[in-house]
Specification:
With 130 residues, this protein is of the alpha+beta class. It folds into 2 domains: 2-86, 2-Layer Sandwich (Double Stranded RNA Binding Domain); 99-129, no CATH class. It is 34% helix and 16% strand. The chain contains 4 helices and 4 strands, in the order βββααβαα. The protein has helices at 36-47, 62-66, 99-111, 116-129; strands at 2-8, 16-19, 27-30, 75-80. The protein has a 4-stranded antiparallel β-sheet. A hairpin with a 7-residue loop joins strand 2 and strand 3. Helix 3 packs across helix 4 (116-129). It starts with a strand and ends with a helix.
């Protein structure tokens, strides 16, 4: 879905800053223009983490926002936001692991105030970002 974002262009010492008029309190930044799409997606995912795509409001009309005097000295951009990546609803799955590994996972998760599912989800996230 296309969302209007307002970009404050950076320079040699400052990143390009992104304001999301439709998502109060959500901000992004990137050093390079080519890094903006990924930074925008990541910021929206983090902003709505745990809430699901149904919590995301529809986009505002760019024509209305462009007329707002609080946006000065920057650039408007229509950014593609993949709302499917915000969906955090649980999915049941069946996996096979060695029994002793499951016991270790459960003990570790319990000692850290987590569940098996929560621990495995966090481990997967960390492995994919490494």
């Amino acid at each position: 879905m296309l969302y209007p974002v307002y970009i404050h262009p950076g320079d040699a010492d400052h990143a390009h800053g992104v304001i999301f008029p439709d998502f109060p309190g959500c901000f992004a930044a990137a050093d390079e223009w080519t890094g903006l799409p990924a930074a925008i997606q990541e910021a929206v995912e983090a902003h709505y983490y745990g809430e699901g795509a149904q919590a995301v409001p529809p986009p505002s009309a760019l024509e209305q926002l462009a007329a707002d005097t609080q946006y000065q000295g920057g650039i408007w951009l229509l950014a593609e936001v993949d709302l499917n990546r915000i969906d955090t609803s649980p999915v049941r799955l069946n996996i096979s692991l060695p029994a002793n590994l499951v016991e270790q996972i459960d003990a570790y998760a319990r000692s850290h105030g987590a569940t098996r599912s929560g621990f495995l989800a966090q481990a997967a996230r960390q492995a994919m970002h490494a």
